[in-house]
Design brief:
Helix Hairpins; mainly alpha; 4 helices
Length: 118
Amino acid sequence: MIRLTRLFKSFIYAGRGLFKIFREEQNFKIEIVAALLILTLAVLLSVSWLEAAILVLACALVLVMEIVNSAVEAISDSLKPRLDNYVKRIKDIVAAGVLVAALAAIIVGVLIFSQYFF
C-alpha cells in the first residue's frame, strides 16, 4: 500500500536536492538555460512530437548526468584527505560521462534541427 505522507516527503527531499544543485552548480544552470533554448526552438520550429520527445530525453540525460556528477563529487570530497588519487580519477570519469551525454545531445540537436534550417 502506498503511504501518501512518505511519498510526499520523498518529493520534498527530491525538490530540495534539485534546488541545491541549481543553486550550487554553475554547469547545471548553463545546461538548464541550454535546454530551455532548445525546447523553445523546437516549439518555434514546430518539430514533430517524436522529435520533441527525443530532444527532451537528450536534455534530460545531460541534466541527470550533471546531478550524478555532483553527487559523486560530494561523496568523493568527503574521502579526499585519504584517497586523493582515487578521488581525482573518480571525478574525471564521472565528468567524462557528462561530456559524452552533452556531445550526444548536441548530435541529436544537429540531426533534428538541420532539416529545418537546410
